[in-house]
User: Fold this.
Amino acid sequence: MLSIIPESNKYIANIRQAIVDAFGRTEEAELVDKIRSSPNFIPQLSLIAVENQQVVGHILFSRIVIEAPQQTIPALALAPLAVIPSRQHQGIGSKLVQAGLSKCCELDRAIVIVVGEPNYYQRFGFQTASKFGLQSSLPLPERAFMALELKPNPLSNINGIVCYPDYFQEV
Ligand SMILES: CC(C)(COP(=O)(O)OP(=O)(O)OC[C@H]1O[C@@H](n2cnc3c(N)ncnc32)[C@H](O)[C@@H]1OP(=O)(O)O)[C@@H](O)C(=O)NCCC(=O)NCCS
Assistant:
């Protein structure tokens, strides 16, 4: 049976391996290690999909900020999302996103930013970030840079810059 649970120490090495297997390279696993050792890490928002004690997927949401002319607005970056190759296209990624977003709501978070494939993330309600007047501190393709409001209109009239911490530049 598949369970979605918060990460715990005993799974750290398996999470790393699942991410490397999913992406076929180590950069995203290293990103997770860097976020985990940063103040931007929120343990309840690092979720794993576990089946028979095996980690088959992982999702992480970490703190970022949006710098707007009059204010600094807290947000979350969804990154990375990984499902091991043998279990892709079976709904596990979707379950991780849905469980993660529910947890974000429970923790009273209002804004999630993601960089990814619009066809995938639109189904969860993400919209092109430029629609909200958001820009990114990193050079990103406009269509891949998306935002989701978890409360009514936290992004109205913001026109801010989503500021990615330096470790995102290395991915
Ligand atoms: C992207 C990923 C997390 C999706 O997880 P999953 O469990 O396979 O996804 P689900 O089964 O919930 O959903 C399947 C849908 O995702 C789409 N999809 C799967 N991989 C995709 C990818 N790399 N890019 C875009 N869409 C993808 C499929 O087309 C499918 O859509 P459909 O149902 O309309 O046909 C997984 O394929 C993965 O780990 N890929 C490698 C790592 C990666 O590229 N992560 C991207 C996020 S940072």
